[in-house]
Amino acid sequence: MRSNRHSRAHARRLFATLTACAAAAATFATSQAQAASVEVLHYWTSGGEAKSAQLLKQMLEQKGDTWVDFAVAGGGGGNAMTALKTRVVAGNPPAAAQIKGPAIKEWADQDVLLSIDDVAKAGNWDRLLPPEIASVMKYKGQYVGAPVNVHRVNWLWINADALKKVGAQPPATWDDFFKVADALKKAGITPVAIGGQPWQEAETFETVALGVGGAGFYKKAFVDLDQATLKGPTMIKALETFKRLKAYTDEGQVGRDWNMATAMVINGRAGMQFMGDWAKGEFTVAGKVPGKDYLCVAAPGTQKDFTFNVDSFVFFKVKTPGVEKGQKDMAGLLMSPAFQEAFNLNKGSIPVRQDLSLAKFDDCAKKSSADFKSAGASGGLVPSWAHDMLVSPAVEGAFYDVIGNYWVNKDETAEQAAGKLAVAAKTN
Ligand code: GAL
């Protein structure tokens, strides 16, 4: 028979064990309540993009939340948007999705987005964001989108050795451009790297149109969707200039991803690429140095202009309890100084919050920031229609079709393509 003293000691030990277990269970429960699982749809799958997305994952997990990766490959995001629609129609949206531009309001109209206005108010986003960007993130005055960056689209990336090899300077005008392209071709270097995908052709055309016609023309054509401008002489000249590029590209372009085209410039197989500055993320991952290995210059004729493309995330109302905490954590993180600096250093873009120092950023980023400000003041700041920042998805898709068909169809004239752009602008 155990003595009373032993029984009391045993009871004390048992109680202590049970209390410890209860405390551990409570802590686990609290941590689980605090830890939210956030499924994130994005299309950042290239080298530079994936590294940037990884940063977001790491920083969200440092907050104790779990990142569930829902990555859908395909530059420009077309595949990702298709996947998203399927999930939303099935009543099972991801907690967060990379959505930008007018599509934010289109989704908000469906009453499927979570308001993050409390996070935005706490973070003073109205004070930190340029008003034209803040307004894109709002629905009926409330924030439903969290912006992460400002990409510039109208860049021309040039392999420095290739340019030196032909003894040329970075082209400032389209006449200069074609002289450099001829010299590169003669030297056996593919002058222009491009991927034969609708969004890449559309983006290249968008940049040519800006360079040939200027910001005023660009706004009349693509913001106002003015019929006369869309089929007028300046548009025809822009389309002719765009088609002239074809002879300076290679046969292997069909279906090529944008980052594979960037790799051609990185390794010197091609001399130049028209691409947004997510391309810089690829040069960075390859250990290349701007000003030494490659040059970032405004595309010909667009030195005073800035075509902006702002990546952002929206947050869907989901049934699973507790996820909202992770969604709000992520929204706050996206606009935090630490994330804005680290992410944009890798992504090739510049921070969207305007109060950050660019001391750690390279000369391309510093130039982008200076041009963003000066273009904003001079009327040269224009939204990219090729990257979902301007027209409806229906009109954007119709423009993609017109430009893509014109690029591959040797017999189609610029006049015919211009007429089709005017019709496409009326798609709803
Ligand atoms: C853009 C997006 C960029 C980059 C690029 C290539 O639409 O805003 O962040 O991902 O596509 O995929």
UniProtKB/TrEMBL annotation:
> Could you tell me the keywords of this UniProt record?
Signal, Transport
Q: Where in the cell is it found?
A: Periplasm
Gene3D superfamilies of this UniProt entry? Answer: Periplasmic binding protein-like II
Keyword Signal tagged: yes
Coiled-coil regions listed in the entry: none
GO CC annotations on file:
periplasmic space
Q: Look up the signal peptide feature and give its range.
A: 1-35
The primary site where this protein sits is periplasm
> What SUPFAM superfamilies does the annotation carry?
Periplasmic binding protein-like II
Q: Name one Pfam family in it.
A: SBP_bac_1
Domain of life from the UniProt record: Bacteria
Say which family it is in. Answer: Belongs to the bacterial solute-binding protein 1 family.
State what this protein does: Part of a binding-protein-dependent transport system for a sugar.
- What is this protein identified as? Probable sugar-binding periplasmic protein
Organism whose genome encodes this protein: Trinickia dabaoshanensis
